[in-house]
Amino acid sequence: MVTAGERASWNEQGYFVRRGFVDGSVTAPMLDEVVATCRRAAAGESIEPAFVLPEPGIDIEGAQPEDLVSKVFRLHRQGVFAEFIRRPDVLDLLAELLGDDVDAFLSQFIFKVPGAFGQPWHQDSFYFPFTPDHQVGLWLAVTEATLENGCLWVVPGTHADPVHEHVFETRRDSLYRYMEIVDRDTSTEVPVTMAEGDLLVFDSHLMHRSTDNVSDGIRGAMVYHFSPAGTEDDTPPHRCINDWLPVRRGSR
After folding, report:
1. What is the pLDDT of residues 89-128, one digit of tens each?
2. Strand, helix or coil at 106?
3. Euclidean distance between CA atoms 195 and 117, whole angstroms
4. Measured distance CA(110)–CA(19) in Å, rounded
5. CA 200, CA 140: separation in Å to the nearest integer?
6. 251 burial class (0-12, 13-18, 19+ CB within 10 angstroms)?
């Protein structure tokens, strides 16, 4: 499942992109389902274990509930989102990178609505105090990700770095005060523009950021995080949003 070129990019750069991994028959139902979830939540219905994180500073007259959402977490037990991580091509890819026994522990749909801020330089492992401390992220482009709507940028090779110090970003009105890395040269950064259905596979130590959405449409992405079975999760209870779910055991 992982080609020689992808393996080389994974080992040397800490990520690779699988172009055209899925088509609209997968991405469109994801968008429909997460929009329905947002509307149910806005109507006061329970969507547990999922929960909605609003986008601060966005005020649109006559907006639909999803127009005011930043992220929806804990979707990987639900409908089309659960179906995606049970796909044989997804599980085989994960097994090549993590071994035969794999758990999903976190998922989020990111709306990145027009006007939304980007997230500054960070490593996901900063938020994952796990043993072992390297996880795999899958970032599925549900819409295209462009320079205008706030695509990801990465610093290739930083998957080999330790987890850097993260400090509160100084930009006012940022999303719940994001944390950022300020002690690492990022001059080798590259943008990761993606078409709908492309899949970014990345190491949790890889430094990445996104920019503001200055377009008039959303930058929709469905993001999953995986770890080897038996991983020790030392996330403090007061900030733990993880939801551990076995997805592969051996060939099952």
Report:
1. 999 999 999 999 999 999 999 999 998 989 999 999 999 9
2. strand
3. 21
4. 20
5. 6
6. exposed
Looking at residue 131, the DSSP 8-state letter turns out to be E
* Separation CA 252–CA 146 (nearest Å): 37
The CA–CA distances, whole Å, from 82 to 26, 106, 107 equal 12, 12, 10
Task: Calculate the dihedral angle through the C-alpha atoms of 17, 219, 241, 57, rounding to the nearest 10 degrees.
Answer: 150
- Which two tokens mark 40? 């149910």
What are the phi and psi torsion angles at 221 (to 5°)?
-145, 140
H helices then E strands: how many in the chain? 4, 15
Are the C-beta atoms of residues 70 and 55 closer than 8 Å to each other? yes
Counted domains in the chain: 1
Residue range of the domain that includes 26: 4-57+64-248
CB-based burial label for 85 (10 Å; 0-12, 13-18, 19+): buried
| CATH number of the domain enclosing 211 | 2.60.120.620
b vs e for 30-52, b when ≥16 Cβ sit within 10 Å of the residue's Cβ?
A: bbebbbebbeebeeeeebeebeb
State whether the Cα torsion 119-205-228-84 is positive or negative: positive
Cα 211 off chain centre by: 15
Which residues, 6 or more positions from 163, have their beta carbon under 8 angstroms from its beta carbon? 123, 125, 126, 133, 205
Q: What is the pLDDT of residues 214-230, one digit of tens each?
A: 999 999 999 999 999 99
